[in-house]
Structures are given as structure tokens and as C-alpha cells.
Amino acid sequence: MAVARLGPTRRAVLLWSAPAGLALLSLTSRSRADDSVDPGRFIAFAYSSAELQNRASVLAASKDTRPEVKQFAGEMAQFSGQEKERVRAFSQQHGLTLPRDEEFEHKVVLENLEPLDHLALTRRYAEVEVQALEQQVRGYEAASQGSDTALKEFATELLPELRQRLDAARRMHDAVKP
């Protein structure tokens, strides 16, 4: 596991598996003694992750993948599209700026998924979804325990849905892994 410093107030842990990695961002802002979630950073992470999952799911649903993957991908594309809209609405209500592009690591994952077909896409997509949803759950859990009341409510509202998606992704992954 490699740790990259992003300046004095942010850090990232990069988890690498298979051909590409996903970033789990600590999402914390250190200001003197507290260690709370930075709403702007959280929103950027949440939006980028939803975009990754949306685009990856649309890709997996459109190609020749196993039936359980195709079904999950179709449902995930719809969910992640709705999640992006919820994140966008939250950011507008609270004066936060959404990023223009996904996180670099998310772009790399998408670029590595696009050329895959059949079983390779099926398996890699399943891995990506499990990793992305695990990271989202950890990020939303951190936000649900933070000091920003609006962010805390937003994260708490989405957490049960994300946990259900993670459970479904794990079942899908178990069905297609070698």
C-alpha cells in the first residue's frame, strides 16, 4: 500500500489490485486539534466515485458480460446516476463546487475497463464495484460522524443504500471470481 501526501491538510491511501487502483481519500482536514471531514473534499470524492461507478456500470451493462453482472450493472448505473444528482443538489444547496473531472485514479480505472471484453470485463468490473463501494461506505461513514450537521444528515441518509449495494456487489463478485 502506497501513501501519497497531498499537502499538509490532506492525504491519500492508494489501494492497488489488478491492473488499476482506486483511491481511498482520507477526506480529513486537519485544523489544530480536530480531525473532521472537509465537506468540499467529501463532495468531490462522492461525485467522482458516483461518476466512476455510473460510467463503469453503463459499460458493463452494454457489453457481453455474465447475466448477474449485466443485471447488477444496469441497477448500479441507475443508482449511481441518482446518487450523482443527489450529490449535485447537496453541493448547490451548500455552496460547494463539484470537480470538473473525476479523481485521477477513477479515470485510470475507467481507461483500463474500456478495452476489456467478456469474462475479463465481468471479473474486473465486479472487483471495481466492490472496491469503489467499500471506499464509498468508509467515506460516507466518516462524513456521518463528522461535525458538519448537513453533511452528517446527507451521509447518514445514503449509507444504508450504499451498504445494500456493497452487499450485492460482493455477491456478484463471488459469483464470477475464478
Core attributes:
alpha+beta, 178 residues, 5 strands, two-stranded antiparallel ribbon
Describe the structure.
By secondary structure, this protein is an alpha+beta fold. It has a single domain, classed as Ferritin, core subunit, four-helix bundle (Ferritin). The protein is 65% helix and 14% strand. The protein has five helices and five strands. The strands form two sheets. Strands 1-2-3 form a three-stranded antiparallel sheet. A hairpin with a 2-residue loop joins strand 2 and strand 3 (20-25). Helix 1 packs parallel to helix 3 (104-113), helix 1 packs antiparallel against helix 4 and helix 4 runs antiparallel to helix 5. Mean pLDDT is 83; it is low at 1-34.
In short:
The chain has 178 residues and is α+β, with helices and mostly antiparallel strands.
- CATH homologous superfamily (4th level) name: Ferritin, core subunit, four-helix bundle
Order of helices and strands: EEEEEHHHHH
The name of the CATH topology is: Ferritin
Count of spatially separate domains: 1
How would you classify the helix and strand content by structural class? Answer: alpha+beta
CATH class: Mainly Alpha
CATH architecture label name: Up-down Bundle
| Major sheet characteristics | 3 strands, antiparallel
